[in-house]
Amino acid sequence: MERQVYVIMPAFQPEAGLAERVRELGQEIRVRILVIDDGSGPEYEEIFAEAETIEGCLVLRHESNQGKGRALKTGFSFVRSRLSGAEEERAGRRTLILCVDCDGQHYAPDGLRLLKKAAGYPGSLVLGVRSFSEDHVPLRSRAGNRAASWILQKRTGIRIHDTQTGFRAFDSSLLELMCQVPGERFGYETEVLFACARKKIPVLTEEIRTIYIDHNAGSHFRPVRDSLQVLSAFLRGGKQ
After folding, report:
1. Angstrom distance (rounded) from CA 216 to CA 132
2. Where is the Glycosyltransferase 2-like domain (predicted)?
3. How far is residue 198's CA from residue 196's CA, in Å, rounded to a whole number?
């Protein structure tokens, strides 16, 4: 990519492969990678320290767990503070932002495709969407996304079969909005979709590889509590 690119990677109590995932991203895309340690605790410090030894990686830390939404906004705020008055922004060469989960579900070459699509459609949100027809997809992911997709389409007219994907790309013109969207935890990403619908921001999709490691055992998504947060966001329809 010729433009400046930031990768935002929220991480709460990550597995030991975090540094390798950061390294793969850096090899595939010339980026600045921001890993947000969302209050993982001192026993995970070595994992984050290893990631920070990789060129281009910076770890931002929350002293306590604040949730995925807040971790993403910490990254967005950092990028926004670095772009104020930047020459390339004034010239219309907007910086690109890629959001990536830390659990190994996202394939680095797919991230490059998302970024290229975001560059080609300025002011749009690009979602990396998974196929839920494959046998190895966990039932909770398949069923949850079907219900969420139906509600989103009914309320906004936006038809997306993977509303909960954390693999997202956009340019810096959307940073202000991303920082203002309410939500601190998993419901935040749902709130973003409703905010885009209200603001008439195009939401585009790009098919990505579907990767689940040990049936997504590394995910910190809590089926009951976090599903209720996401459902609450859908039922509100993005209203605050």
Report:
1. 14
2. 7-174
3. 5
- Average pLDDT of the residues in 181-199: 92
Angle in degrees, 0-180, between the axes of helices 139-156 and 225-236, rounded to the nearest 10:
10
Distance in Å from the first CA to the final CA of the chain: 37
Q: Residue 129: CB partners within 8 Å, gap ≥ 6?
A: 160, 161, 162, 165, 205, 206, 207, 208
Note the pLDDT of residue 215. 46
Using a pLDDT cut of 70, give the percent of the chain over it: 76
Length of the chain: 240
Nearest Cα to Cα of residue 212 among 105, 102, 127 = 105
Q: Which of the two residues, 177 and 150, has the higher pLDDT score?
A: 177
The token pair at 99 is 């959001």
Res 58 pLDDT > 90: yes
User: DSSP assignment, residue 217?
Assistant: T
